[in-house]
Every structure is written in structure tokens, then in C-alpha cells.
Amino acid sequence: MVGRITAFMYGILCYLAFLASFLYAVGFLGNFGVPKGIDSGRVTGFAEALLIDAALLGLFAVQHSLMARQWFKKAWTRIVPASVERSTYVLFSSVALLVLFWKWEPIGGVIWNVENSVGRITLWMLYAIGWLVVLIATFLINHFDLFGLRQVWCSLLGREYKAPAFRTPGLYRYVRHPLYVGWLMVFWSTPEMTAAHLVFALATTGYILAAIQLEERELMRIHAEYAEYRRRVPMLVPGASKPITAEIRRPAANQAS
Questions:
Q1: What Rg do the C-alpha atoms of the chain give, in angstroms?
Q2: Which among 74, 86, 117, 127 is most buried, taking Cβ atoms within 10 Å?
Q3: Which of 245, 244, 211 is nearest to 230 (CA)?
Q4: Gap between the Cα atoms of 21 and 216, Å rounded
């Protein structure tokens, strides 16, 4: 029982780490309400700043994708209990993000600056909506399972953990990856696009497009029914095909990253 309690408390701490990184990200990308935003600090040499920022983005991308793969999970759960595998993934992702925020270097230079008040308000609204879409998407596919709390809760109660059934509610009927749609809105919706922000937006957009391919190849191998879902529902742009209304089982790896 002590081990179960320890695992549960560990899961709670990992979730709090996620909350801290998530809330800080809102201010970091928006350049408000946090000690250091994406454009904060003294601008150093372009090459040096670009190299540091690229390394930070690469660190997060490798960690985030590697630990989400099924082969890694199988190997990893030989070291850590299965009940805390997801929580550990969440913790490592949160730490990688916090390190990125801490060490990020501003680059200087403005790509665009929207001075029109209506335009600025519109972009800030899209920024807020993007964060809202991200949150809604996580709750539609079971927020607490996605961030490891359900796993440690089942362990605490001595219940067998079973992945929740995969449904296609709400946003998932119109795009396969609403979580990524929300992130893209967040990355690009800014009234002042600086060089540093552009580097971040381009790198994270590239990562998302690559991650989708890796994720869907894995899902196609594991779940034959995903092929039909993929055929009928567009990847990121609503309206590219007819929405799906039927429910299919939730792949354990779906939306893992």
C-alpha cells in the first residue's frame, strides 16, 4: 500500500509540474505576466542565440517523441512501474519545457507588428482561443488519463488500469488532431512576431507535422480501424472531408504527444 501511495503522490507532483509549465507557457509566448518571455533579456549574437534556441527545441522534440513511442514504453516499464510511466513522461516533458523557458535566448528583429487595434485584439483572441482548444481537446480524450492521474489513481485503489474507449466527440469529429490545431493557433497568433518567436513557431510547426506522421504510422500498425478514421477525417483543417460520427476504440498511444 505504501508503494501505491508513493506512486499516487508522485503522479500528483508530475501533474503539478505540467500545470506550472503550461501556465508559464501562456505568459512566455505572450510576453506577459512571467519573469521571462520569449523576447525577454539582452540580445546576444544572432548565431549564438539561434544555436542555443535550436538545441533547446531539439531537446524537447527528442524527449517528447522518443518517450511517446510504444517500443520505448515497453522498454521503459521494465525500469519504472507501469502505473507511473505516463506521469514520468509528463514530468520529463514539463522539465524540458521549463529548461527551454529558462535558457531561451532572444534574437532581436521584428518580422511583423500589427498596429491596428482591431487586428491586435483579433490576434490576441485567436491566441486565447488556441489555448482553450488545447484544453478542450485534452478533456475530450480524457485529460486525467492523458496526464497520468487516472493511472496512479487506479493503482492506489488496486484496480486494473484499462485505457478509456476511443470516441470521436466534438472537435475530433472534424479534425484528427485538434490538440495540434490549438497549438498552431497559439504559436502563430501574435500581433508582434519577432525573429525569436518566428524561430519558435517554425520549429514547433515542423515538429508537429513530423510528429503526426510518426504517430499515425504507429496507430495504423496497431489499430486497423484507424485507417478508416484517417480516411474520413482531415488531419488539421476542418471541412476537408465529411466529419466522422461513428465511434472507434481509443488507441493507447493516440494523442500521446
A1: 19
A2: 86
A3: 244
A4: 26
Residue 1, Cβ neighbours under 10 Å: how many?
7
Number of domains in the chain: 1
| Secondary structure (H, E, C), 146-191 | HCCHHHHHHHHHCCCCCCCCCCCCHHHHCCCCHHHHHHHHHHHCCC
> What does the pLDDT read at residue 45?
85
Q: In 10 A of CB 117, how many CB atoms? A: 9
- 236: DSSP letter: S
- Contact assessment for residue 172 and residue 232, using Cβ atoms and an 8 Å cutoff: no
Would 206 be classed as within a structural domain? yes
Q: How far apart are CA 183 and CA 201, in angstroms?
A: 10
Which pLDDT does position 204 carry in this prediction? 96
First to last CA, the chain: 31
**pTM (2 d.p.):** 0.86
C-alpha to C-alpha distance for 182 and 33, rounded to whole angstroms: 21
| Residue 207 domain-assigned (yes or no) | yes
147-160 average pLDDT score: 92
Q: What is the pLDDT of residues 26-41, one digit of tens each?
A: 999 999 999 999 999 8
Residue-averaged pLDDT of the chain: 88
Q: Please check whether residue 128 lies inside any domain of the structure.
A: yes
The residue whose grid cell reads 525577454 is 40
